[in-house]
Amino acid sequence: MAEQQTMRAAIFRSNEGIGVFDAPVPEPGPGQLLVRMWWASVCGSDVHMIFDGLHDPAMEGKPGFPGHEGVGEVVAGDIAAALPGVDVGSAVLTAPVGSAGACFADYQVIDASQVVPIPDGLDPKLAMMAQQLGTTVFALHKFWPHSVPPRVAVVQGSGSAGTFFEQQLLAQGVGTVIVSEPLEHRRALALDLGATAAVTPEDLGTAVLDLSDGLGADLVIEAAGFDVARAQAVEVVKYAGTIGCFGFPERGGLSPFPVYDCFRKAIDVRWSVGAQIEPGIPAFREAMRLIERGVVRVDYCIGEIYPLEQVADALAAARAYTGVKSTVTLR
């Protein structure tokens, strides 16, 4: 068990915002591990939970919430329930269900089946990106389960998730990958990673027609989270094409969507959630291998590093799109 009895932890309450306080070190129960956290990364869903009210009210006041992308060291718990290669002292990626995350704290209790060992020699800050990369690996398997890659693919949004989709599509042999992104520095990143074209949303329709011989995209991945992006996906996908919706919704409840146009074009619309509850969490283990082998670059995602006491600033920077991601250090 942890030698200390208290820890630093970010605590969020909707009427107070998020701050850092002392909290008891949690104790693992059956099937759980206690992980001493080293690093945590801010996810776009964290931003929506903190600033837009898209969180489970029952999670308010939970130490470490809503952080769910982190790495650290196993210090105690039910090792027998963990994946092979995990033991006390192991460096691990923590991959809890996003809505139950608690890695904005010195210690986190997590289901033993939701940690992935970090390979020897791999920088833990890079390994940390296997959490979000894993969700995109899971999503892409669902969006395009075919053995033959799409001829033309569009990725809407060039944040971390969008660039992970872009790189996987290129690695799978997609000949034309078009990225739509309003921010110039993110369009430049998309091109640096190998995109065929990186354009503003206003120019996306023309670019897709020019690069698809007027047919439209076989696959459009919406990784931005905006209603307007999903509507544009319907516009640029080809007849009987596929749209993969990945971005976190703008709001709870109903959202506008061009159902009639989708119906007339016979579009296959798919959604992705649940990577963390897939038995054995294979998508996250695959993501770790992709990073270790250099198939997917993630170094640009580390971004500015904030101490835990400045977690509110890290979240605000993520909301302002000042970089690709923000990192919180707990060391």
Automatic annotation (TrEMBL):
InterPro entries: ADH-like_C, ADH-like_N, GroES-like_sf, NAD(P)-bd_dom_sf, Zn_alcohol_dh. Residues 167-292 form the Alcohol dehydrogenase-like C-terminal domain. Keywords: Oxidoreductase. Its cofactor is Zn(2+). Residues 29-120 form the Alcohol dehydrogenase-like N-terminal domain. Pfam families: ADH_N, ADH_zinc_N. GO terms for molecular function: oxidoreductase activity. The keyword Oxidoreductase applies. Gene3D superfamilies: Medium-chain alcohol dehydrogenases, catalytic domain, NAD(P)-binding Rossmann-like Domain. Signal peptide: none annotated. This is Zinc-binding dehydrogenase.
